[in-house]
């Protein structure tokens, strides 16, 4: 049985342009800046305390081997912009504290001489890890390569050896694969015929493709006659394909199939930078994936995270019998500011992921290990938030905190009517931000807020009266997150599928200097924001609960903790 307990995510294809090298996923190599070594300034108000990032420069996956978690990530050792990419490597015993090692993979063969891009790994029989990754060959074609550990007795896997048969999969005139859109192999799985399967992202015009390859020995691969799946949503990057049990919260191996699991196909949409997924069924004889009836492909469907979150991968943690999701949070600041601060790119908190009871969506929650960083606990219960009120919470380090709050709502009949045309939640959150008063909402948290609220990031709910049901809108409003107008301050939002007539409305926010990861309804909606306040930094940051609606809302329970700084490097 193949253990799908490894996942890495790296980027992307090269297209030569004028003055820059432009990556297919719109990552730009700034040639005129590549020679500038970024020197991180002493004052670093936006560096995170418990999210993974290297000490400086540009970054952009995780696996478990012999009880040790391995994080491989794209890293530019020479600057805070894209370029000079190597596969950097860190290890951890708890997914929280990380120890760096020497880079694991870097360009050295003709099949990857122009770049070692994204890939995944699989544990082969006997417990041997094998990485499949995209390389850029001398013709700037995207091809697929294999690397294996040099020393299996080393739990830290500090040295890797590339196959002499690379590339193992490549575009040819016969297969008519787009050589500039053929990347990001998934974790492989075994079919009932004992052959390995792997999916690679591609496209034909705007038809996104999950191209399927098969192999008996993991070295000699051939293309299946049909793709695993396709849809008209543009190029599919970093595809991920895995089973989830229909009952419970445990994870399962990627090769498992049958009546007690559903399958998830996630793709990173190159056109919009969103990680979207569908839930469906996998015919492992015909090798066809079919989304469930009612599933929507692309941006109008389900997403892992409705904020800044991209190029994600999952892996099966067989040590704790769970599936873990990891993702990349890119910057909202300008390239000039990235160079000034000396670094760019952060990893999101690892999340446990499972199928909701409805079987219509996934649920995510930060791994429990992160809770070991909690300290300075404060709590509050049964506090009425009258319309127009704001309450400050002191006693925690508001710039580096973990907050869990549940709200109790009554007077549902006073909810505003949801107009039939209000179908886009992000647009609705933008039009009806935290400053726009309503009836039941907006209410929630003001995080990374300054005294006087000149700066604040608002994470909140609104409740509407829809057709035969009440509709919950969750928003992360960054429009006043910073006085620096050069930042991207997009407002994000999603509809939350929860019956609030029978349940309290919960919200959890992980706050870490320039990151706000929020989980609504127990993890049914996740929104990650990247913000750069100028006033609400370090000890000047404040934390509030607020209700700008006309109707009172009760805080049923609130728990908040300061978060200790993790050992990252």
UniProtKB/TrEMBL annotation:
Task: Alphabetically list the UniProt keywords.
Answer: Glycosidase, Hydrolase, Signal
Instruction: Say which family it is in.
Output: Belongs to the glycosyl hydrolase 32 family.
Matching entries from InterPro entries are given as: ConA-like_dom_sf (IPR013320), Fructan_Metab_Enzymes (IPR050551), Glyco_hydro_32 (IPR001362), Glyco_hydro_32_C (IPR013189), Glyco_hydro_32_N (IPR013148), Glyco_hydro_beta-prop_sf (IPR023296)
List residues of the Glycosyl hydrolase family 32 N-terminal domain: 51-366
Top-rank taxon, per record:
Eukaryota
Tell me the leader sequence span: 1-25
**CDD domains associated with the record:** GH32_Fruct1-like
* Segments forming domain Glycosyl hydrolase family 32 C-terminal: 369-562
Species source reads Gossypium darwinii
Under the heading PANTHER family, the entry gives: BETA-FRUCTOFURANOSIDASE, INSOLUBLE ISOENZYME CWINV1-RELATED
GO process terms (BP): carbohydrate metabolic process
Return one GO MF term: hydrolase activity, hydrolyzing O-glycosyl compounds
Instruction: Spell out the protein name for this chain.
Output: Glycosyl hydrolase family 32 N-terminal domain-containing protein
SUPFAM superfamilies from the UniProt entry: Arabinanase/levansucrase/invertase, Concanavalin A-like lectins/glucanases
């Amino acid at each position: 049985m193949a253990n799908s307990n490894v996942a890495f995510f790296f980027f992307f294809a090269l297209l030569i342009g004028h003055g820059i090298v432009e990556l297919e996923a719109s990552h730009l190599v700034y040639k005129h800046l590549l020679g500038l070594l970024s020197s991180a300034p002493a004052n670093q108000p936006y560096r995170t305390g418990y999210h993974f990032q290297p000490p400086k420069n540009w970054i952009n996956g995780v696996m478990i081997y012999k009880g040790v978690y391995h994080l491989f990530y794209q890293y530019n050792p020479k600057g805070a912009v894209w370029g000079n990419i190597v596969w950097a490597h860190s290890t951890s015993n708890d997914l929280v504290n990380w120890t760096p090692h020497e880079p694991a993979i870097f360009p050295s063969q003709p099949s990857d001489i122009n770049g070692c891009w994204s890939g995944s790994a699989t544990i082969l029989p006997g417990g041997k890890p094998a990485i499949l990754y995209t390389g850029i060959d001398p013709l700037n074609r995207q091809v697929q390569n294999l690397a294996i550990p040099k020393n299996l007795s080393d739990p830290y896997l500090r040295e890797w050896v590339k196959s002499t048969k690379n590339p193992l999969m490549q575009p040819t005139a016969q297969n008519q694969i787009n050589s500039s859109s053929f990347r990001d192999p998934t974790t492989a799985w075994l079919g009932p015929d004992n052959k390995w399967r792997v999916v690679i992202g591609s496209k034909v015009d705007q038809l996104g493709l999950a191209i399927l390859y098969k192999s008996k020995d993991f070295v000699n691969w051939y293309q299946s006659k049909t793709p695993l799946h396709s849809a008209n949503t543009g190029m599919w990057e970093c595809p991920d394909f895995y089973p989830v049990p229909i009952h419970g919260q445990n994870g399962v191996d990627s090769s498992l199939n049958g009546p007690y699991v559903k399958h998830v196909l996630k793709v990173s949409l190159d056109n919009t930078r969103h990680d979207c997924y569908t839930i469906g069924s996998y015919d492992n004889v015909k090798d066809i994936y079919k989304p469930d009836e009612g599933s929507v492909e692309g941006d109008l469907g389900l997403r892992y995270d409705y904020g800044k979150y991209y190029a994600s991968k999952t892996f099966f943690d067989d040590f704790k019998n769970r599936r873990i999701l990891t993702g990349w949070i890119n910057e909202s600041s300008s390239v000039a500011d990235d160079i000034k601060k000396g670094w760019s790119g952060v990893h999101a908190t690892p999340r446990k992921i499972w199928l909701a009871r409805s079987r219509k969506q996934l649920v995510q929650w930060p791994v429990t290990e992160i809770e070991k960083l909690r300290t300075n606990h404060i709590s509050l219960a049964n506090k009425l938030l009258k319309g127009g009120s704001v309450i400050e919470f002191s006693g925690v380090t508001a710039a580096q905190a973990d907050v869990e709050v549940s709200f109790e709502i009554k007077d549902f009949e006073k909810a505003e009517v949801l107009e039939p045309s209000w179908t886009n939640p992000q647009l609705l959150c933008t039009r009806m931000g935290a400053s726009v008063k309503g009836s039941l909402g907006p209410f929630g948290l003001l995080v990374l807020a300054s005294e006087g609220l000149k700066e604040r990031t608002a994470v909140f709910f609104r409740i509407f009266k829809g057709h035969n049901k009440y509709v919950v809108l969750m928003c992360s409003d960054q429009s006043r997150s910073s006085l620096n107008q050069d930042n991207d301050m997009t407002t994000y939002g999603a509809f939350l599928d929860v019956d609030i007539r029978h349940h309290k409305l919960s919200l959890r926010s992980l706050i870490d200097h320039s990151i706000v990861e929020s989980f609504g309804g127990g993890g049914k909606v996740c929104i990650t924001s990247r913000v750069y306040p100028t006033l609400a930094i370090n000890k000047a940051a404040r934390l509030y609960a607020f209700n700008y609606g006309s109707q009172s809302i009760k805080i049923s329970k609130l728990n908040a903790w300061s978060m200790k700084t993790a050992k990252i490097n």
